[in-house]
Amino acid sequence: MTTRAVAVASAHSGGWHARLELEIASRAGRSRVVGKRQHGPLTMQRPFYPEGVPCHLYLLHPPGGVVGGDQLEVEIQVAGGAHALVTAPGATKFYRSAGPLGLQTQRLIVAPGGVLEWFPHENIFFPGASCRLHTQVELSGDARFIGWEIQCFGRPAIGERFGEGRAEIGMTLLRDTRPLLIDRLRVAGASSLDGRAGLRGFPVFATFIATGAGTDTLAAARHRLSEVADYPVGATLIDDLLSVRVLAPEVEPVGRLFVDLWSDLRPSLLGLPACPPRIWAT
């Protein structure tokens, strides 16, 4: 059965209800998955250790797409002294809905002394999709976080626009329960896509964030962004939080930009050279 057929079948059966909970802690000199609870079609590949202590985790959603009525939940807890880099094999696709919302919630919890790097592939919203997404990052003490999220409305490679449907997207980052970032984006109709207070006609909106940043980090980020001439980009530093925003015509240049930015900043923020997950090369 094709990915689209699986997704359509799930809609007729009331939607997938899936939840994945992971606990990562330091054991015997490595960061290991010490707890895993799974319900429905959400899982992970075995951890990889291409750079020693940090574990690289690949999250898997075998149906490959989300339709109205689906509910996907991910919760990841990183203990003190542990370091996880989390990514996925490919994009998440949100298909046309007959009415019900498709829901995706992600809660990322990092204890003092822990590190989480969060690098999902893009979310692709097909015309007619109806969905709500939210990612909440909860840091305690000196916990560190680097991550990005990329949203693609329609399929620009074939000239398809997100002309109908609705998407509500949120991202919240807290340190010791204090909000450092609260983002909300609602896209529904041409005014959201084309308005100056919306996406300005660009189908791709993306955010890169990193904690523990300073003025040197901001300068390095702006130097990297200065190489971008074809679409709007910007970097802001608030306290120790670096936020980079991008509007773009396609996903691929944003992905390359964010990988380059991570490669520039990881040594100073985490004391480690960039070590791209193997799956990014496939």
Written description of the protein model:
The protein has 282 residues and is of the alpha/beta class. The chain has one domain (3-270). It has helices spanning 3-12, 190-194, 215-225, 251-270; strands at 17-27, 30-39, 43-44, 55-60, 65-66, 71-78, 83-87, 92-94, 102-110, 115-119, 123-125, 130-139, 144-153, 166-175, 178-187, 204-210, 233-238, 241-248. Strands 3, 4, 5, 7, 8, 10, 11, 13, 16, 17 and 18 form an 11-stranded mixed beta sheet that branches. It has a 7-stranded mixed beta sheet with strand order 2-1-6-9-12-14-15. Helix 3 packs antiparallel against helix 4 (251-270).
**Helix coverage percent:** 10-25%
**How much strand content do the residues show?**
35-45%
Compute the average pLDDT.
Answer: 92
Shape: globular
Domain count: the total is: 1
Order of helices and strands: HEEEEEEEEEEEEEEEHEHEEH
Brief rundown of the structure:
By secondary structure, the protein is α/β, with parallel strands linked by helices. The chain is built from 4 helices and 18 strands. The strands form 2 sheets. Strands 3, 4, 5, 7, 8, 10, 11, 13, 16, 17 and 18 form an 11-stranded mixed sheet that branches.
Could you give the topology of this structure?
Elements (H helix, E strand, L loop, with lengths): L2 H10 L4 E11 L2 E10 L3 E2 L10 E6 L4 E2 L4 E8 L4 E5 L4 E3 L7 E9 L4 E5 L3 E3 L4 E10 L4 E10 L12 E10 L2 E10 L2 H5 L9 E7 L4 H11 L7 E6 L2 E8 L2 H20 L12
Parallel strand pairs: 1-6, 4-7, 5-8, 6-9, 7-10, 8-11, 9-12, 10-13, 11-13, 12-14
Antiparallel strand pairs: 1-2, 3-4, 13-16, 14-15, 16-18, 17-18
Helix pairs in contact: 3-4
